[in-house]
Design goal:
Blueprint (H helix, E strand, L loop, with lengths): L1 H17 L5 H19 L33 E6 L1 H4 L10 H9 L2 E6 L15 H7 L8 E5 L12 H15 L4 E5 L10 H16 L4 E2 L12 H4 E2 L7 E2 L1 H20 L2 E2 L5 E2 L3
Parallel strand pairs: 1-2, 1-3, 3-4, 4-5
Antiparallel strand pairs: 6-7, 8-9
Helix pairs in contact: 1-2, 4-9, 5-6
């Protein structure tokens, strides 16, 4: 209605006063109306709409098109990663989050953590991820594999990183073709999150999405914040910024909660509309 009124007013003004002497005003009036219409359509003064948070309060990154996680009581879960999986800085390693997942999920966990290791970096008591995956026993036959980390690659990133991750994941999928695989990104050992760690998180998210593998991001979900940092991370010299015993329990809760959300996640149909899970 506003556009129609402005059109009428401008044209009447041009017709009633200057029709004989200034016919070009009709053209000018039409141009003004066109500009006003464009402005009303685009509304550039409105604030931009930002996309919703990637985590959305849900499991960090249920890959589009992936089926919901299926995890039954007593199944085997391989938890593969670095010192955080190993249980470093807990009173004893078996109080690490990877071990605690067994009770929280009612499953049998197979813990494969090597301190200091990553996709690129060999560890203290084992090689880098690719070689470690090659050495895994095929007879483990896990129903679920959680691949964690790793902040240990932050000083070598990005040279060769994508290739190392791709090779490692290819080998893992080939060795355990029936397993469901969830990628658990690096969690920050210091705050603010180091730039290379943040880039590793982004790269792993992209690579997981390309395979329709769920990706859990402690960084995006803000598992560790200034408010809880000292409750989760042991900053003593011997612990070297690893999760404390209480921190491991907290991480186990967060991982278990995200996995349960993945179990309830809807299947995304081919046409893009979600289908309810059975």
């Amino acid at each position: 209605m506003l556009t129609a009124f402005l059109t009428y007013a401008l044209l009447m003004h041009a017709h009633g006063r200057f029709r004989a002497r200034r016919p070009w005003l009709l053209v000018g009036a039409a141009l003004v109306v066109a500009v006003l219409c464009a402005l009303l359509a685009t509304r550039p003064w409105d604030p931009l709409q930002t996309p919703a948070d990637a985590s959305g309060g849900k499991a960090a990154a249920q890959a589009s098109g992936s089926a919901p996680l299926v995890l039954r009581p007593g199944e085997r879960v391989l938890v593969f990663g670095d010192s955080w999986v190993y249980g470093s800085a807990a009173i004893r390693p078996t109080l690490g989050f990877a071990y605690l997942l067994a009770d929280k999920l009612d499953v049998h966990t197979i813990v494969a953590g090597v301190r200091g290791s990553g996709y690129l970096k060999p560890g203290i008591d084992g090689p880098a991820y690719g070689a470690r995956i090659a050495a895994l026993d095929p007879s483990l036959d896990p129903e679920l594999i959680i691949v964690e980390g790793s902040i240990n690659d932050r000083h070598r990133y990005p040279t060769g990183y994508r290739a190392a991750v791709t090779s490692a994941w290819n080998a893992l999928a080939a060795k355990y073709p029936k397993a469901q695989i969830v990628i658990l990104g690096p969690a920050p050992q210091v705050l603010p999150v180091e730039p290379a760690t943040a880039k590793i998180d982004t790269t792993l998210r992209e690579l997981a999405a390309a395979r329709s593998w769920p990706y859990l991001s402690p960084i995006a979900e803000k598992w560790i914040t200034p408010a809880n940092y000292l409750d989760v991370i042991d900053t003593s010299r011997t612990a070297s910024n690893h999760p404390s015993t209480a921190g491991h329990a907290y991480l186990a809760d967060r991982v278990a909660a995200d996995l349960r959300k993945l179990e309830r996640a809807p299947v995304v149909a081919a046409e893009g509309s979600p289908s309810p899970t059975p």
